[in-house]
Amino acid sequence: MSESKQIARETECLLPSILGCLLACEQCAHDNLPGGMKSLLKGLLEMMLVACHESRGITSKNALVTILAAFLSSNMKLSGALVFRPLCLVAQLDQELAANLHPKARQAVNEIELSRGTGTDISLRTAFQEFSALVQTT
């Protein structure tokens, strides 16, 4: 089996961890991060998305969107707007994948605002708009 196919096969179990690490990097003070940690994670994410694109049929876009949506919904309540930073990176690397996630992201933002009952969350909306801009213009 080629290396690309192996990476694509492992993406489903590794992607949530990579996204979680990227989110942790966003939440951490940048001077507390080991040098190059974030760029290493970005490189891994890019490698996985490229491998999935090259090895169609091993890990479907639908499976990746499901993983991304689960990441979004499980982290938005505690992390707020920061949860969109790893997703913006995904949008930069794979616009089609991010476009498929976009409606679920919009729904998640609306649901979190409704559950809080405090109206529009400006920082969450701003982060979502940045994600939306990447989806539409990249």
Judged by helices, strands and strand pairing, the structural class is mainly alpha
Low-confidence stretches: none
For the secondary structure, the number of strands is 0
Strand content bin: under 5%
Order of SSEs: HHHHHH
**CA radius of gyration:** 15 Å
Overall shape: globular
Main sheet attributes: strand count, strand direction, barrel closure: none
DSSP helix count? Answer: 6
Helicity, as a percent range = over 70%
Q: What distance lies between the first and last C-alpha atoms, to the nearest angstrom?
A: 32 Å
Average residue-wise pLDDT: 88
Fold blueprint:
Blueprint: H1 3-27, H2 37-54, H3 61-79, H4 84-93, H5 95-116, H6 122-137
Helix pairs in contact: 1-2, 1-3, 3-5, 4-5, 4-6, 5-6
Could you describe the 3D structure shown?
- The chain is mainly alpha-helical.
- Helices cover 80% and strands 0% of the residues.
- The chain has six helices and no strands.
- The chain has helices at 3-27, 37-54, 61-79, 84-93, 95-116, 122-137.
- Helix 3 (61-79) runs parallel beside helix 5 and helix 5 (95-116) packs antiparallel against helix 6.
- The termini are far apart.
